[in-house]
Amino acid sequence: MFFNFRRLKTGAVVVLAMLSMPVAGQDLLARQAPIDKKMRAVDSVALQRLIGDEQLENPAFGLYPDWNNQYAHRYDVELPEEYKIDLRHFCMPTPSTRITSNYGYRASFRRQHKGLDIKVYIGDTIRSAFSGKVRIVDYERKGYGNYVVIRHPNGLETIYGHLSKHLVRENQVVKAGEPIGLGGNTGRSTGSHLHFETRFLGQAINPAEMFDFVAQDVTGDYYIFRSNKSKGQTEVAKNTASARPKPTAKPRSKVHRVKSGENLSVIASKYGTTVAKLCKLNGISRKTMLRPGQIIKYS
């Protein structure tokens, strides 16, 4: 039998090359893996940014029937039985802690007061409570005076009344803490103050149920809006368990508001705790980037 040694030699070289390919391929994949992981992380961040931008351009679009620049709080919609409102990533609209008029019925005026009046002076900076999109910038002589209405992705609309000056325009996207106006005494007002309203699908909610102006904080991470349809009234609760009596009161978490330049190590050192405990309390990791104004629990 005749063998073609040249052909056999060539075939052996090909087989050896094929056998060596997986090893080279594995090396290539090993080198590529960190790059792929980084690219996936970049893609994830970019996707989150796109989703966030879309939510700000069309805030709570699944809840509200339309977008208009006319009516401050007029909606012909059926209220959901329950809706969870995210209060995280907030900013107090003013550093003032003095409430001059509470939410509720005013006997002297024989009408409901649908917001809180907070003492501010003419020219004081008023800021957006959450990120969102400005729906109305207008003037109402016998009511709000100069006012701004902002719709937020969490479903709330906030109203800021009696301003001396507008600092935003309609359909402008704003971030939490961004200046939107200056304190004033315009419209139906007897002294300089901020009239602050929180509404859900046009339904007024007492801002004090969500904002603690004295503590300059929110009352919790979330707020549960409940609609009592059988009585045609609106019921609100701070959390899903608040309607049930508890044998003992749960101590309120101690929180820190992140300042510019702070990280988890700085905050842990400040309160005598560890980064690991901060991560566990807040459901975050050591690599989480903190934002100025973010609320961090430390106890």
Class by SSE composition: alpha+beta
Number of helices: 3
> How many β-strand runs?
20
- N to C succession of SSEs: HEEEEEEEEEEEEEEEEEEEHHE
CATH topology of the domain at 82-237: Glucose Permease (Domain IIA)
What is the CA-based Rg, rounded? 28 Å
**N→C terminal distance:** 87 Å
CATH superfamily of the domain at 82-237: Glucose Permease (Domain IIA)
By CATH, the architecture of the domain at 82-237 is named: Distorted Sandwich
CATH top-level class of the domain at 82-237: Mainly Beta
Helix content bin: 10-25%
Q: What is the approximate shape? A: globular
Could you tell me the mean pLDDT? 81
**What summary fits the major beta sheet?**
8 strands, antiparallel
Taking pLDDT < 50 over at least 5 consecutive residues as the criterion, the unreliable ranges are: 229-250
How would you summarize the topology of this molecule?
Blueprint: H1 5-57, E1 82-86, E2 99-101, E3 104-106, E4 111-113, E5 116-119, E6 125-127, E7 132-140, E8 145-151, E9 156-163, E10 165-166, E11 173-174, E12 179-182, E13 193-200, E14 203-205, E15 211-212, E16 217-218, E17 222-228, E18 233-237, E19 255-257, H2 264-270, H3 275-282, E20 295-297
Antiparallel strand pairs: 1-17, 2-5, 3-4, 5-13, 6-12, 7-8, 7-11, 8-9, 9-13, 10-12, 13-14, 15-16, 17-18, 19-20
Provide a descriptive summary of the structure in words.
- It is a single chain.
- The protein is an alpha+beta fold.
- Among the domains are: 82-237, Glucose Permease (Domain IIA); 255-297, LysM domain (Membrane-bound Lytic Murein Transglycosylase D, Chain A, Roll), CATH 3.10.350.10.
- Helix content is 23%, strand content 29%.
- The chain is built from 3 helices and 20 strands.
- The strands form 6 sheets. Strands 2, 5, 7, 8, 9, 11, 13 and 14 form an 8-stranded antiparallel β-sheet that branches. It has a 3-stranded antiparallel β-sheet with strand order 1-17-18, with no helix packed on it.
- The longest helix is centred in the first third of the chain and has 53 residues, at 5-57.
- It is globular and about 75 Å long.
- It starts with a helix and ends with a strand.
- Residues 247-258 have a biased composition (Basic residues).
- It comes from Paraprevotella clara YIT 11840.
